[in-house]
Amino acid sequence: MSINRKRMRVASVVAGIGVVAVLAAGCARGGGGDGGGDGETAASPGITDSSITLGITTPLSGPTAGPGTCTVAGITAYFGARNAEGGIEFGDGQTRTVEIEALDDEYDPQKAKANYDQLKGSVFAMTSGLGTPTNRAWREAAIADEVPQVLIQTGDPIFSDAEESPWQLGFVPIYQNEGAAFGELLASSGEDHKVAILSQNDDYGEGYVEGFKSAIEGSDNIEIVGELTYEATDASVDAQLTELAATDADVFFNAMSITPLVISSLQKTQELGWLPSWFLPSNTSSPGAILEPGGATAFPGVYTVSFAKAPQSPAFAEDEDVVGFLDNLAEYANYPDVPAFPHCMWSYMIGATLEQVFAKMTEPTREDFMEQLRTISDFQAPLMLEGTAVDTTQDGQPAVSSLQVVKYNGSGYAPAETWGE
Fold first, then answer.
1. Among the ranges 201-205, 274-278, 311-315, 416-420, which has the highest mean pLDDT value?
2. Which domains does the chain have, with CATH numbers?
3. Tens of pLDDT along 347-381?
4. CA-CA 20 to 30 A from 314: which of 38, 72, 116, 206?
5. Rounded distance, CA 18 to CA 73, Å?
């Protein structure tokens, strides 16, 4: 799905060929004391006695529009359903509907910053948006403006460091955690492996590689035989793949965030006759949108990490969480298809986590919101895999730091407790 609208107001998502538009029920803007429980505390911008407005800047067009669309659709589905039930009960005794304004940044940092500047005075908090460079582009401004930038979809650890980022908190596991989980699985295999690495030349790629290398340190069964980088703006990585194929590595660690490049990389390695096992980041491992068109069944194994139930997996076809999620996605986000990207599930979980925070807020202020945000522990959000949970109390970690390594089975993923299973 792609989205070609630059601005969306969310309370329902209207999709034509990929257009997400959002419902907004007239919401009053600004603070001015219109929502302070006992009437004594001046409310922050974006909240009244009857509504709260959240902002999102995310790619709704361009090569990352598929996952970007999901960062809006899932949270819209969650709060659309809750709004239809009458709204969310906050800790101050008020019941409020939740409305969302989402703007397209095309995965361009400058546009993301411009979107933030446009939204900051009218929304209570910014949330769910995709991307490391795009979220970094306005992190310092959000700190200076004291605007929450929370439960965003980037694994950059800077957003989960309370000292460096007092108005921020990431949602998905940090890149280092993902890389380390795969490294631990590989190191425990008891087999000798030669590993080739291709990573994005930025904090995203460096974080994955750092985590992987730390996990295999001291393991005498793993040898890194080739390591190259690429730029996120590159149209092709054929040259790097050709060089890495010559190493004859049996494992390919590919820290890549650009969907079209992952697909073409899967195809190119087959053309080269190089068929290693793969590791892919969680945000570029979609079975339907990436692995199927890339012909991933040609490889001995494609691994990633996950903390969310995959609706496309037969194992979850009748799961209560999944059935409810798909129903809400179709009805309130006008997103009738089974999501190809995990970001739809992640943003649905973000909605559920925010509801937990709202229930604790006794004042309609950004300060109280941030204080309560850091008190959520062992929360099993809808769609979370068994053994994973939301925990916002650990400094240096995002809301979700628990995950599982999973292996592609031709249609979805199954847990991979040991290498090769």
1. 274-278
2. 7-172+319-390 (3.40.50.2300), 175-306+405-415 (3.40.50.2300)
3. 999 999 999 999 999 999 999 999 999 999 999 99
4. 72
5. 11
